[in-house]
Structure to design on (438 residues):
């Protein structure tokens, strides 16, 4: 669990699933909604893929995984539409886009295809929590600074009439990139002290061969970079 | 006349105001990953434009004539991602057989596009925007294709600009903590900010 949330946080350390991280974190409640939806999909898809791991032929495994994931995403989409229409409205296009979230495909390939169902479900839960935690972090920072509220409740210090005015920048697109960059820098800084080896998750991304990030110093550990390069080579 | 006007608006919106990468956060992975050199950035963008237009050309009629007619709209996500995946494979095979030169330049980027959220996002957004009954099929189809093309063009513009920015950045003395991805994201933030200036143009 700790591994999923802190050491191998999928967003801040493995740099997976950046699109939803940037897009839906304008307010904290959206961030949580997205996190929970993705976690649900991740647990279910990890379990099913792990159950099917001996049946799926190696050659067509990626399309098979995508189909499984897409099925669960549709289910979650319908559930959200039925029980949380407001959330559906604010997440919009990013809800169906969970299908192409590389965290989910990455975990299917990296973990679920090699481990037992129970372990895979647990891994899904851990990774999902890590994803949610990172999203929540971004959401809280951006909502507090950008709108002066937190979960829709006004913060007296940060809103109109308090110490400072809300800074619109953080609610807009550039603010998303900025906060994400800063958070990642903070995560790098903290982990550098502890010198924990981190596996680079990029190896599972189909883009690994051409992607400059996969062989690049995301974490600054040369060992992890070698691992990523090898993984990338194997995958493509 | 309104026809031409809408098309111009749709393309300009795709490039400037509704840029997929910089204002909708679609396709961030290739944006950060492949933008280090200008030529790879261009190759990737060309492949994205190609697949986007092609995917829209296939998914739009399917949405209108199959999914909507049969009341199967909830299968949209599954159907679209499978179509895109199959299409990308098909294009690769065809290119390899008949246009080896083009395959050599675009080929490596094609398989990467299947899991690119810009393509899936584009097909879903386009069917949302132009799929309603207020457009006739021919008209809506046309707008949808141009919208996909404009969005792809926007991706290309963002990639090209950002490749330039990153080239400059290589020569800079960056604090250790910010090296690598953090500084890239902050640079992306600045590029995105410059695109905010276009708000209201279209």
């Amino acid at each position: 669990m700790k591994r999923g949330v802190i050491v191998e946080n999928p967003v801040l350390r493995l740099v997976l699933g950046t699109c939803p991280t940037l897009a839906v974190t304008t307010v904290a409640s959206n961030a949580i909604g997205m996190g929970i939806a993705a976690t649900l999909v991740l647990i279910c898809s990890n379990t099913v893929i792990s159950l099917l791991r001996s049946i799926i032929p190696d050659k067509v495994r990626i399309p098979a995984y995508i189909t499984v994931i897409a099925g669960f995403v549709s289910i979650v989409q319908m559930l959200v539409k039925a029980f949380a229409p407001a959330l559906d409205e604010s997440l919009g296009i990013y809800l169906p886009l969970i299908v192409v979230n590389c965290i989910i495909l990455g975990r299917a390939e990296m973990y679920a295809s090699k481990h037992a169902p129970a372990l895979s479900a647990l891994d899904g839960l851990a990774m999902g929590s890590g994803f949610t935690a990172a999203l929540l972090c971004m959401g809280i920072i951006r909502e507090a600074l950008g709108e002066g509220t937190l979960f829709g409740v006004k913060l007296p210090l940060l809103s109109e009439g308090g110490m400072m005015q809300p800074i619109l920048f953080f609610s807009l697109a550039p603010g998303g990139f900025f906060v994400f960059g800063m958070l990642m820098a903070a995560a790098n800084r903290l982990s550098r002290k502890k010198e924990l080896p981190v596996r680079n998750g990029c190896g599972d991304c189909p883009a690994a061969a051409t992607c400059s990030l996969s062989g690049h110093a995301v974490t600054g550990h040369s060992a992890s970079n070698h691992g990523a390069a090898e993984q990338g080579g194997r995958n493509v | 006349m309104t026809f031409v006007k809408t098309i111009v608006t749709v393309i300009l919106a795709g490039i400037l105001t509704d840029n997929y990468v910089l204002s909708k956060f679609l396709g961030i992975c290739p944006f950060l990953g492949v933008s280090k050199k200008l030529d790879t950035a261009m190759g990737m963008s060309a492949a994205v434009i190609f697949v986007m237009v092609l995917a829209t050309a296939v998914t739009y009629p399917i949405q209108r004539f199959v999914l909507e007619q049969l009341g199967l709209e909830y299968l949209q996500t599954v159907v679209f991602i499978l179509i895109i995946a199959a299409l990308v494979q098909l294009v690769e095979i065809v290119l390899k057989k008949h246009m080896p030169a083009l395959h050599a330049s675009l080929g490596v980027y094609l398989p990467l596009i299947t899991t690119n959220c810009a393509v899936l996002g584009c097909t879903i957004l386009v069917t949302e925007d132009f799929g309603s009954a207020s457009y006739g099929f021919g008209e809506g189809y046309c707008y949808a294709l141009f919208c996909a093309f404009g969005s792809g063009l926007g991706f290309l513009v963002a990639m090209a600009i950002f490749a330039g920015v990153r080239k400059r950045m290589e020569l800079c003395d960056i604090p250790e903590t910010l090296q690598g991805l953090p500084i890239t994201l902050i640079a992306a933030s600045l590029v995105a900010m410059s695109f905010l200036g276009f708000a209201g143009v279209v």
Observations:
- DSSP finds nine helices and two strands in chain A.
